[in-house]
Write a structure and sequence with these properties.
Elements: H1 2-5, H2 9-28, H3 33-64, H4 69-77, H5 83-94
């Protein structure tokens, strides 16, 4: 699983988007119209998740100044826990 090997949040975002694109393509490959309709619905639903994910990534970068997971963990362990970081964690969970 590529999500386990990533070192930063942007690479995790790219990995998730690649999974979405490949999943939508697999759903769309169908002989009937229902497959294409399901793929379009899936694409719109995943776009909403992507929006939350991008908002969370932007909030994390604004708060910590980095997207590296190790640096973020180090800053959180040192006691730096602003409200924006907690909001970003909620958005990441929702995405």
């Amino acid at each position: 699983n590529g999500a386990l090997y990533t070192g930063d949040i942007f690479t995790l975002f790219v990995f998730i988007e690649l999974m979405v694109v490949s999943s939508v393509s697999l759903v769309a490959v169908s002989d009937n119209r229902l497959g294409l309709e399901a793929a379009i619905k899936y694409l719109f639903i995943s776009a909403m998740g992507t929006l939350f994910l991008l908002l969370a990534i932007g909030s994390i970068y604004t708060t910590f100044g980095t997207l590296t997971i190790a640096d973020i963990a180090q800053k959180l362990a040192s006691g730096e826990r602003p409200l924006l970081a907690e909001a970003a964690a909620v958005m990441l969970t929702c995405a």
